[in-house]
Amino acid sequence: MNVGNVGDLSIGQWVAVVRMWNEAHAPADAVAPPSQKEFEAAVLQARSLH
Questions:
Q1: DSSP secondary structure letter of residue 26
Q2: I want to staple 34 with a disulfide (CB 3.0 to 4.6 A). Which of 4, 7, 9, 38 is the partner?
Q3: Torsion over CA of 31, 33, 37 and 41, rounded to 10 degrees?
Q4: Residues in Cβ contact with 8 at an 8 Å cutoff, skipping those fewer than 6 apart
Q5: More confident of the two residues 31 and 44
């Protein structure tokens, strides 16, 4: 992007840069995030371990 001062970017430009960065650097075998139910189950399991 070659921006001299990143402080000159608008919030929309930052969003576009971050989206493209994430897309370009995402691993090819990226795993989908857990569902809400799976996440809550993992949290409950982790709490019971302590």
A1: S
A2: 38
A3: 70
A4: none
A5: 44
Q: How far apart are CA 34 and CA 49, in angstroms?
A: 20
Return d(Cα 27, Cα 39) in angstroms, integer. Answer: 22
Amino acid making up residue 2? N
Q: Are 5 and 13 in contact (CB under 8 A)?
A: no
Count the residues in the chain.
50
With beta carbons less than 8 A apart as the criterion, state whether 7 and 15 touch.
Answer: no
d(CA 46, CA 50): 7
**At residue 11, what is the residue type?**
I
Looking at residues 11-38, what average pLDDT do you find?
A: 88
Note the pLDDT of residue 39.
94
